[in-house]
Predict the 3D structure of the following.
Amino acid sequence: MILTRRSFAGGLLAALATPALAAAEEPCCATGDLGLVVERASGSLVVIDRSARAALGRIEGLGDLSHASLTYSPDERFAYVFGRDGGLTKVDMLTRSIAKRVVQAGNSIGGAISDDGRLIAVSNYEPGGVRVFDAESLEMIADIPAGAKTIGLADVPGRRFIWSLWDTGETWIADFSGEKMVLTKLADVGKNPFDGVLTDDGRTYLVGLFGEKGVTAIDLWEVEPKPVRFLKDYGKTADDLPVYKMPHLQGWAFTDGQFVLPAVGQHELLWVDRATLEPTGRTAMHGQPVFIIAQPASPYVWVNFATPLNDTVQIVDSRTHGVVKTLAPGPAVLHMEFAPRGAEVWISVRDENKVAIYDTRSFAKIGEIAAESPSGIFFTARAHRTGL
Amino acid sequence: MILTRRSFAGGLLAALATPALAAAEEPCCATGDLGLVVERASGSLVVIDRSARAALGRIEGLGDLSHASLTYSPDERFAYVFGRDGGLTKVDMLTRSIAKRVVQAGNSIGGAISDDGRLIAVSNYEPGGVRVFDAESLEMIADIPAGAKTIGLADVPGRRFIWSLWDTGETWIADFSGEKMVLTKLADVGKNPFDGVLTDDGRTYLVGLFGEKGVTAIDLWEVEPKPVRFLKDYGKTADDLPVYKMPHLQGWAFTDGQFVLPAVGQHELLWVDRATLEPTGRTAMHGQPVFIIAQPASPYVWVNFATPLNDTVQIVDSRTHGVVKTLAPGPAVLHMEFAPRGAEVWISVRDENKVAIYDTRSFAKIGEIAAESPSGIFFTARAHRTGL
């Protein structure tokens, strides 16, 4: 496939100089098995080919990627990269170049793409609020100020977005399905939400709270969704934990009828029954869990850990809650991304400047790719998933 | 995107005549939002663009597609089409042409692609057994005779395939992860399995029985998987129903902790708790259900019906088991395919020679595409799902 792509690279330029002659014999590249690795220190991305287990090239000039995330267009051609500096960058996977870039705010913390692929929403700390852009042109089509920092932005089916407000303890839902945007505001979600996440079935929006203990669940399938508190001992109070240990909810996994989340500040996983929201167990771990990620089509979750114990990955069986395997990929494991059908996992090992690839069944290391201080790994298959 | 693809078509041919000059400016097509519609009467496929809601072209010469299915390569470039005549055809979505075609048996009924995208398995009535082909070359790399008709072939994580044997009541699992294939045979699955299906989490293989009542579940996450009977009144005995009413298990849906399946020969859905395998309810329907398909990221399943009541589609809420909407797309609704994030559904209306597109939230018809006697609709996003 790489060869095909290379041989293609010249073809288009030739086409610009030479009139088209007839139908194509061997066109370039499909995009179903591509991906991007964030190089956090250098503000660049490595384009990867999952099938070839290879890097295809590097895209530079994306600004501050120290806390970056991204999402893909439905055709898996474009990535929308949300940088910490407020930059929204549209990247073309085929030309491996920046298609468009706007600096849309002073400090942004995440974004989402609508289910029809037409709208890009970005949530901001500075100046706060959410801004929505045309996915094609990156022109702003809606500015939704909140007088508050916004967190936990996710797409919801039906051309909708959901997010929460740190300062006011609200959750807002913007519906772009009609002629005019309709904004729904839910109050009393909890004091100082610090992150929010949508479950993999698109049903439940979970909100982590900083200003009080507990987690809030909102059932978006209800006609009038309302906040429900659970895990009422979860989280920090002012005394017991420093701020930097609050786990991000994107690190929660949904597996086998359960949520799995990190016990704040402890070397433990918590298991919660998805239907009843009651705790069902705990698992002692190697360190403080950061990301807990479900291996597709399996009973397993993979867990990485906070510094200084971050050279390790553990695999836990969601049926027994027992650790079944411990791996040591190397210093500073920051992220893990599964092939969409679960055959392999790609693991960023920041301080060895590499991405390591493991077979999920044999646990054998089957490949390695060079990258500078890699953090997030994102395969294009994410284009087809809700709530990312 | 369509224009981009067209302008690309000439470029490559030019490249064949002209040496490559430099890097590309504007390459062609991503493949994440493409699809194929089977034209059953003419042995052809229509290539569709989901984002543009448009047909891009037609591929002809695929033989007998009266009972065809297909699967996609991980890069979403190639489709592997399994025809009733034993034909295995590799179709290139970019050139919109047949890349390779072999007639590998006398009468084949379905196939699957391994989780690493390297192996294509086909199950055959005539001469029976399963044959496995290299996905690149279509050369046969394993012939697994069974002395029996094989049905219900699916991919299982870890470079494995599973299928069942009509004549002997067995289920076989072939593991291609090592140097040599390892074959596991499970006996006593039930008399005359007529179809098998893997649940969406890759955990449970369900087998429908023709020679006795009941359904068999096999938990593939067990170290030694074993058949478990449930729904012991389900199905036919020789007296009570004609053969042609046996529903295919690909028409079962998995939603909200439940299986949903057609009540054989009746105008009813059956609901089964996924954890306990106990029945939880019934829903009276417009006709005999054929396909029951879960709308992604929603509580809804969409149902079409057997002739002569096949002009209708009903939508059922999996929480209440109630019908929430009845649509009449037109005569002979044969299949439904959802956009992977659930925003819209494409419905083949055979006797009006069209595919109708509906918004799943408003139920408004938002598009239509011409196709000759369309049956199955398959979006490339299927490349990323297990068990298809």
Summary: Residues 32 and 380 of chain B are 6 Å apart (CA to CA). The radius of gyration of chain B is 21 Å. The longest strand of chain B covers residues 119-126. The helical segments of chain B are 2-17.
